[in-house]
Structure formats: C-alpha cells, structure tokens
Amino acid sequence: MLSGLLLHCEGNLLTITGTDLDLAIRVELEVIGIADGSTVVPARLATDIVRSLEPGALTLDTNEDRVDIAAARSHFGIRAYPPMEFPTVSAVGAPTTQLGTQALAEGLRQVVRASSSDDARPLLTGVLLTNYGDTVRMVATDSYRLALRDLAGSSVLAAERDILVPARALAELQRLTTAAGAGDDASVGVASSANEIAFTTANVTISTRLLEGTYPDYRQLIPESYPNQLVVGKESLLAAVRRVRLLVRDNTTPVRLSMRAGGVDLAVKSQDGDASETVDGDYTGEDITIAFNPSYLIDGIDAVLSDEVLIESTDASRPATVRSAEQADFRYLLMPVRVA
Amino acid sequence: MAERPRFGGDEPTICHVDMDAFFASVEVLDHPELKGKPVIVGGTGSRGVVAACTYEARRFGVRSAMAMTRAKQLCPDAIVMPGRFARYQELSALVHEAFHEVTDLVESIGLDEAFLDVAPAIRRLGPPVEIAQGLRRSIWDKTKLVSSVGIGRTKMLAKLASREAKPKATARGVERGRGVVRIAPEDELAFLHPMEIRALWGIGPQTAEKFYAVGIRTVGELASLDAPTIERLVGRSMGPHLLAMANGEDTRVVVPSRELKSIGQEQTFAQDLAEVASVLPYLTEQAERVAHQLRSKGLRARTTTIKVRFSDFTDLTRSSTTEVGIDTGPAIIAVATGLLEKVELRGGIRLFGISCSGFATHDANQLSLFDTNAPSEAATLQETWEPVSGAVDAIRERFGADALSVASHLGRSGTVDALRPERWGPTAPEEST
Fold it and tell me: What letter would DSSP give residue A248?
C-alpha cells in the first residue's frame, strides 16, 4: 500500500496523499468533480502515465479495483487498490505559526545539509526547531559540523518546547518552498501536535512524525570568541576549494588552510598528486594551518548568503566558524581534521 | 571471460609478483637488528596463529597458519611480533605504485601479490624477463623489500613460477631465490606434470582426496585421464576446467582491479524470518565474509549498510558510519546488529544483506564536535580483533573457509553448511564499482 497514492475526490476538490508512515505529503487540486469517490493507484505507474500524456485535460474514472485514465486519444486502465487499506494520515490541525516562505527556503538550504544520514544516530538525522528570542532557530549537526539559522520576522513556534523534525521531511519541504519561488509575503503554516508536525503551503501539506529524544546541547559547542578572523570573497574561496578538491577521491583527504596576513593558502595532497591555491583576504590573528574535510567546508561556504565569508578559528583542533561577514543569523560550525 | 587480443604472440607475458614473507620482511626492515633472525608475525597470545614468518623461521618448519605455540616449540628462539596493518598498507601502496609504472593491467590480490599482464609494456620496456627484473629493482628501490616474479603464458603458470622463484628454506639454511622464473611455452608440461595435484587451482583437500583414492597424485597423471573419468570424480562443472589446467591451459585473463566502491553479501532465506535472533546467524556469517574480503583487499570501511527485503518485496536499507575504518567481523557485526535491531521485522523478511563502503585509506582523523572520548563499540571491537584477523585469514587460506567459524554457527555436525547459499563454498562476493 505504501507504494500507492490515495486519490480522494469530494465536490471539486481532489486530494492526493502519499505516505511511508513516517512522512506524508498531501496535495489539493481543484478539479471538475463528477462524482465523489476514492481509490488507491500505484504511484510510479500512475505518475509515469499522467506525465506522458498529451497536454490537456484528463479524466479519472474509478471502478472497484480499476482506474481508467483517459486523455485525448489515450486510454489506460490500471489496477487499483481499496482505499480502506490505505494507512490513515492524521490531520495535525490548523496552523498555529506562519513562517516566511523565502526565509524558510533559505534557512532549509543552509541547515538541512549539516544533518546526519547515519541511522544509528537517529537524533542527528533531525533538524531542531526551537524558539530563540522572538525568532525560530533551526539547528542541524552530524557531529562534525553544525549549522544554525535564525528565521527573523517569523512568528514564534506555538509549542513551548523544542521540536525535532526528520531532515528527510525538511528536504522535501525545501524542494517545495524552493520550487514555489514565492513572493515576499508568501508563508508556510506550521501546526504541531505531541508527535507530529505539518507544514502547509497554498495547496500542499507535508506532515511527518517527530523524532523523540533530547537533542544535544548545541549552545555549549559554540565558542564565545575566536582569536583569528579571516574575511575572503565567498565565490573566490568556494571556487578555490572546489578546484583543489578535484584531487580528493575519498572522503578522508583534507584540505589544509594556511591563514596569514593578506589571505589564505589552500593545499591538498592525495595519492593522485597535490594542488595548491591562494586566495587574498583580510586576516587578523596568528599564522595557523587548519585542515578540514573539503566537502564539509564547501557546504559551509556555499551556505553563506553574502559576498564575503568570515572564517573564525582558534587552533587546529578546535571548531572554526564559517559565516557571513555582515549577517549574524547564520553560523556554520566545523570541526577540523587532525592530520598526522 | 573475454579474450583480450594478445600483443606478444606466444611469448608469455603474464607476471605473478609476490612479496617474499611480506609482513615478516616489513618487521625486519623496520627493526634492522632482526635481520637474519627467525621472525614470526602473528597472534602473540596463547592461542595465536602465525600470519607470516621469515625464511629463517621456515628453516625450523614454521609455516603460516600454524598455531603459535607449535611454532614456538619448533623455533624457541623466534622473535614473535604482532602485526601492524597500517604499516603494511603503506608499503603495499608503494609496491602497487611500482606495478602501475609498468602497466595498468594489474590485478591486485591483497596487499602483497598481483598479476600483471606486461604485453603492452614490451615495446617500451623490453622482453618480460627484463621487465620483471626491472620491477623487482623498482620495488626494492621504493621499499627495500624483496619480491619474486613468475612469468607464464597463463595466470596459473605464472603463479607456480613465482613460487619457484622464491628463496627456499631447508634445515641447512636459506637458499637464495632465483628472483625471476619464466616458463617457456615448450617447457610448460615438463614444469607442470611432476607437480602434486594440489598445485592446480581449485583442488582443495577434499577434491584431492578423490584423486588420491584412485591413485592419481601428480598433475601429469591427472592430465592422462580422459574427460569422462574426471567428470565422474569431480563433477561436470569442475572436470573440464581441471583437465585444461593440467595441460597448462587457463583462459582467465588479468582483470585490472577496479576501484571498489563497496563490498557486500546478501542472502535470500528459505523461509521468511521475523526475529532478530533468527537473522543473526546469517548476519554474522555475512559480516565475517565481508570482513575477510575487505582484509584481502587491504581496505577498511567506514560505512556499514544493511539491506532488508520484506515479504512484500519492498527493500529497506539502513547505514551507519563509524569513526574509524573497520575490517574485522566483530566490528561489522556490532554495527549491523545495531542497525537490524531498529528495523521492524514482525512482517517477516525474505532477504538480508550487508555491504561496507566508504573505504578509508588515510590516517587523517575528522574530529567530532561532541567531545566523545569513549570510542564506539565498533571501534573497540576493531581494535581488539585486528591483531587476530590476519591469523584467521591465514588459517582459512591454508585449510579452507570452513576451518574457522564463529562458534555460534556450529551445528551438531560441526559445520556451517546450513548457512551456506551454495554447497561449494561462499558465493562470489558482490562488488560494485
């Protein structure tokens, strides 16, 4: 049943629901309803069929264990399943919070990437949503890096507690909000219950089970101050790290950043050879060399939204921060790689 | 297997390069005071096993896979050292560098052994014998370690030739090896036929017994049998293959080792299983095999993935990354069991598999934000079992895959057949690139 889509037509409203029990996505479409009814169709097949049809209107007609899809001169009759067997997707309730779509899309892009994909550490596969002052703060970490974004101007989460949302659901939400490309005033409604959360845009609702457990105390991980500060152009640093990364074939070869007055020297040495590059910038602090996983570093730089990146560091074995030189609402904390 | 167009006509171009007593030689290299002494690398505990030994130790009858207590009886003066995998891997990388300077047709067999087809290099570097001598020199220059090279028209002949090229340890002393031995096409049968049938690939102790029972002991005697007779003895799939090899034929070409992305095992059950306890024996067996594969390729994996197929044929995968690369059964078992325990099995599963990926080849260590001083269970197990695993491999190499097994697998018959997807040994590991 989980590979099926529930189609439900009531009046002129067609609701399409898909779920894997943890995550459910519901889309509402205005249609010309001829008769009310429900059916479950195989998702992949139905999608392939509809996508391949000539542009224009299509008719859906359900009969017990069969659905007929017709458009122009094409006609498909495919096997359907009884809607009774489709898992119930509970309704979380009306949204209690509104988040600006654009800021949310931005924040998701910046934060979701830092979450873990390691199923053995379930808490870290989630993104923490928490009230921070009068903003909503999103936090994700895979224990090697941590991304944090405050959504200013968003109304505060109604719940008085932290919410841990599976990153997988937020990746879907990210796709949805990015695709929406909405105007400044569009917003996403958030509703949550004890164990679920739902995000609603104009016609799509993504609901997911919450992760249970206590998220690690991220606040104590963030250093209060850093002795070393490097400011460089975001695009030139990003391009340089991407270039030297060409020599990295496994995930364990680090890129070394040697920071000194006037900029930073990048170096990679792998079994395929070596690469080095220099990026000009402003540096205050002691001359130091710190090694990072190049992919993690790229994730951080790429998430910064301004033209200049500020890299703050202490030494070769303590976390560094990548953030915008101008804005303080995003931080990307990154642990170095210790090299022998 | 597809025939590759040959460059050298009938000129034998397949080289088998084998490092002489690799682990033990590395220890002597790093501890020059041990030179000329009997050195044994292996488990140092009371139940340890010999993983490798110098030729000086072989003079006393010490062999790899032998119990350490026995080895010490034979050679009480032997210096016993635990293995240092990272160091062997480092030198192995240099050895492989030397291989690739000759040709890209390198089929690597573990850390210290490889087949090279040097046909494409003849125009550039001269006849195979010269190439082999150059290769031995280049390996020496890079590592100060000695290797032996066998050259033959087929992989089997090359492998047997490299054995001929090695130093010989007798009670009187260690005889220097010839270094390079080439089997000319016209000498093949004279070289092969006097050998004991166990020299042929695919003839293990059990198959050998079948031939001994009918009085066949040498390759030449086997070659004189007709095809139906051999097939009656060893079956239809193996018979023609053995006969061809006994006549020096072997169509397998050198397959350049691909860059592996993952190594895995999976198995469909006769009946759906619905409990962790009933999946565990399969999990354990698969983990051991994957671990063995990893070790034989000199790889350590940081990511372990399990795959479960439910009775409705939907698949689910779950993976976990450890802070260190792992290549021992117990470490993989710990990670895979942890993942399996989080899967809802009540509906029944029909297939279970394990694969390992994310091969770590560098010692760089990504630090964690959370100051987790305590290593994970997998890391601890890896550390515990690492020294023993080389010995496990040596025993399996010598006495067959069944010689050692996890105790919980042993049935009343003392075998693990029930878990085997195939009676004739493990299925080929699934490797994906």
Answer: -
Quickly tell me which residue has 């899809």 as its tokens.
Answer: A69
Q: pTM for the full model?
A: 0.56
Q: Do A117 and B319 touch (CB under 8 A)?
A: yes
Rounded Cα gap, residues A319 and B262, in angstroms: 31
**What contacts 24+ positions apart, CB below 8 Å, involve A323-331?**
A325/A231, A329/A135, A329/A149, A329/A150, A329/A151, A329/A152, A330/A110, A330/A147, A330/A148, A330/A149, A330/A150, A330/A303, A330/A304, A330/A305, A331/A147, A331/A148, A331/A222
Distance CA B12, CA B254 (A): 13
3-class DSSP state of B323: strand
d(CA A201, CA A205): 6
Give the span between the Cα atoms of A311 and A263, in whole angstroms. Answer: 11
B-facing residues of A in 252-311 (CB < 8 A) are 252-254, 271, 291, 293
CATH architecture of A223-334: Roll (3.10)
Residues of B within 8 A of A333 (CB-CB) are: 369
- Which residues 309-338 of A are in CB contact (within 8 Å) with B? 317, 319, 333, 335-338
A63 vs B254: CA distance, rounded Å: 60
* HSE-up (13 A, CA, CB side) for residue B420: 15
The C-alpha atoms of residue B54 and residue B128 are separated, in whole angstroms, by: 28
The domains spanning A4-85 and A97-219 adopt the same CATH topology: yes
pLDDT, one tens digit for every residue, chain B (433 residues): 434 444 445 789 999 999 999 999 999 999 999 999 999 998 776 677 888 899 999 999 998 878 888 999 999 999 998 888 778 888 888 899 899 888 888 888 878 899 999 988 888 888 999 999 999 999 999 999 999 999 999 999 999 999 999 998 887 888 888 999 999 999 999 999 999 998 888 787 888 888 998 899 999 999 998 888 888 888 877 888 888 889 888 877 787 766 567 888 888 888 899 999 999 999 999 999 999 888 877 778 888 999 999 888 788 888 888 877 889 999 999 999 999 998 888 888 999 999 998 776 545 677 888 865 566 788 888 878 887 887 777 777 677 666 676 666 555 444 444 444 333 333 334 445 4
Please tell me whether residue A242 adopts helix, strand or coil conformation. helix
CATH of the domain spanning A97-219, picked from 3.10.150.10, 3.40.50.1820, 2.30.40.10, 3.20.20.70:
3.10.150.10
Q: What is the value of ipTM here, to two decimals?
A: 0.80
Return the SS3 of B28.
helix
Q: What one-character DSSP code corresponds to residue B181? A: E
Which of A122, A251, A337 lies nearest to residue B367, judging by beta carbons? Answer: A337
Q: Parse chain A into domains and list their residue ranges.
A: 4-85, 97-219, 223-334
CATH of domain A4-85: 3.10.150.10
